[in-house]
Design goal:
The chain has eight helices and 15 strands. It is about 25% helix and about 25% strand. With about 325 residues, it is an alpha/beta fold. Strands 3, 4, 5, 6, 7, 14 and 15 form a seven-stranded mixed β-sheet that branches. Strands 10-9-8-11-12-13 form a six-stranded parallel β-sheet, with helices on both faces. The longest helix is centred in the middle third of the chain and has 14 residues. It starts with a strand and ends with a strand. It folds into two domains: about 150 residues, Medium-chain alcohol dehydrogenases, catalytic domain (Quinone Oxidoreductase, Chain A, domain 1), CATH 3.90.180.10; about 130 residues, NAD(P)-binding Rossmann-like Domain (Rossmann fold), CATH 3.40.50.720. Bound molecules: NADP nicotinamide-adenine-dinucleotide phosphate (NAP).
């Protein structure tokens, strides 16, 4: 008899209030893919875009179970090296877009995007990590080549990624200057060594910046480039400013001499980075930052919270035990 599970199954643009859990077949394993029993998942802006608009695009499989990341345990290892019951995190690689994702009790996932982890964190704590902390880690270490002696500017710090980057950089020993574009949100970044209200111009307002993580993006990128010190590196990772590309960008004039520009894209998570990240977490006893935890049965409330922007930080959804 076919086994079924609870899942969010979308076929068309769907408002948060209309999202319900459906009964759906538990996927059958196939070579190269493992079955993960999902214990919790973090929610992402890209899933919101998919649910509200992008689902209409031809390249999105329909019906689709959304969700680009999750944490859980191996329910069926198929032909992989993993063992049943192994604690894993999974992310990206087409999850929730070209094949079914994590808004379900089980997910069939390609082995290259499933990573074994050692962690004593609770499922809902672990679920704040995969996509957000992988992106923060890659931006800080692969792109910005962060060193403990750096002064790091995080532009647009009042988002899940900003809080994660701030936590990692501070634990690493850096001085952190964090910005928000809202006066009332300054209190949310008080863990930073310096919190700054961003009115669109930071040049001259912040000093001694050796590395900059820009989460606002092209809207203010030219100003970020002139706000860092000579020899500084700017990593463009976020697009919170709502401007996605930079027309009329003149690299000769817009990138100051001796300043470096790079960008990070989280599409290809690697085992090495996941291992480095968890070693750091375990050594420093860090508990990842999240904004709110919802039960899977309350998925509609979690999505409403996402759409209304009422939660500061990562929204996590936990499966009912
Ligand atoms: N490069 C990659 O591979 C990658 C991977 C993951 C995420 N990202 C990007 O990184 C950014 C952060 O992602 P996230 O998941 O951490 O976001 P999130 O937690 O969903 O945060 C969104 C919040 O950021 C706040 N925000 C802060 N500064 C802002 C500004 N200047 N303009 C507009 N909103 C601002 C907004 O709240 P307030 O307006 O109330 O402050 C908004 O509610 C996004 O642009 C996302 O697309 C990139």
């Amino acid at each position: 008899m076919e086994r079924t599970m609870k899942a969010v199954v979308l076929t068309q643009p769907t408002e948060a209030k209309d999202v319900k859990l459906a009964q759906w077949p538990v996927p059958e394993v196939k070579p190269g893919w493992v079955l993960v029993k999902v214990h919790a998942f973090g929610m992402n802006h890209s899933e919101q875009i998919l649910r509200l608009h992008e689902i209409q695009a031809d390249y999105i499989q329909k019906p689709i179970i959304p969700g680009i990341e999750c944490v859980g345990e191996i329910a069926d290892p198929s032909d992989s090296h993993l063992e049943k019951g192994q604690k894993v995190i999974a992310m990206m690689g087409g999850m929730g877009r070209s094949f079914h994702g994590s808004y379900a009790e089980y997910a069939l996932l390609p082995i290259h995007h499933v990573f074994a982890v050692q962690s004593d964190l609770k499922w809902e704590e672990l679920a704040a990590i995969p996509e957000t902390y992988f992106t923060a880690w890659g931006s800080l270490f692969e792109c910005l080549q962060l060193r403990p002696e750096d002064t790091l500017l995080i532009r647009g710090a009042t988002c899940a990624l900003g809080y994660a980057a701030m936590q990692i950089a501070r634990a690493y020993g850096c001085r952190v200057v964090a910005t928000t574009h809202k006066q009332e949100k300054l209190a949310l970044i008080k863990e930073a060594d310096e919190s700054v209200l961003d009115d669109g111009r930071l040049t001259g307002k912040v000093q001694g910046i050796t590395k900059a993580l820009d989460l606002v993006g092209p809207k203010n990128l030219k100003d970020t480039l002139t706000a860092v010190a000579h020899g500084g590196i700017v990593c463009h990772t976020g697009i919170l400013g709502g401007v996605y590309t930079l027309n009329g960008f003149d690299p000769i004039k817009d990138i100051p001499n001796g300043v470096y520009l790079t960008g990070f894209f989280s599409n290809a998570p690697s085992r090495q980075v996941v291992e480095d990240m968890f070693r750091f977490f375990n050594e420093k006893n860090l508990v990842p930052v999240s904004g709110a935890v919802f039960d899977f049965a309350q998925i509609s409330d979690a999505l409403i919270a996402q759409d209304t922007g009422s939660i500061n930080g990562k929204i996590v959804v936990k499966m009912t035990d």
